[in-house]
Amino acid sequence: MIPPSPSATLLVDGYNIIGAWPLLLYTRDRNGLEAARWQLIEALVSYSAFQGLDTQIVFDAQYRNTPSNSEVITDRLSICFTDFEQTADTFIEKICADLNQELRKFKRRVIVATSDRVQQLMVTGYGAEWMSAQKLYHEVESTAQGIRRQNKANKQSSSRFLANSLDPKSRQRLAQLRMGLK
What we know:
The chain is an alpha/beta fold. It has 7 helices and 6 strands, in the order E-H-H-H-E-E-E-H-E-H-E-H-H.
């Protein structure tokens, strides 16, 4: 099945979000920056898929003397480390500027998640929408709760028999095998 095209592009200022979410700060201080990055990535994987967003998390080249690189995590989420000494802010602003024409032409939404006030003003000037780190946190948590409720309802609705979890074609084939039909 081909996934539907994304409803919007979400650009996330990675270290800004890590610094704003208490759980990620705790993880960073206790287990290091790499652990906090992966915790953020894991939180956004389900959120992006469930919301139908094309998400890119941007990290500064902080503590890395390497050229920029991108890594695709899922079909909806990728991460990018900027060039050495390039900030995530300038990287995100450049993407917004590049997408400005596309936004108008294709009526596509770009949302930037950061609590940096200067970046908020810059990206909205390019036609992007802005979401605070706290709003993103609440939306991610709300989505996770919705997914848990949905999964719980799905588990409770099926009866205790394994056959009820099978698709109709498989159930029919099992019935034929029970009756000795080939």
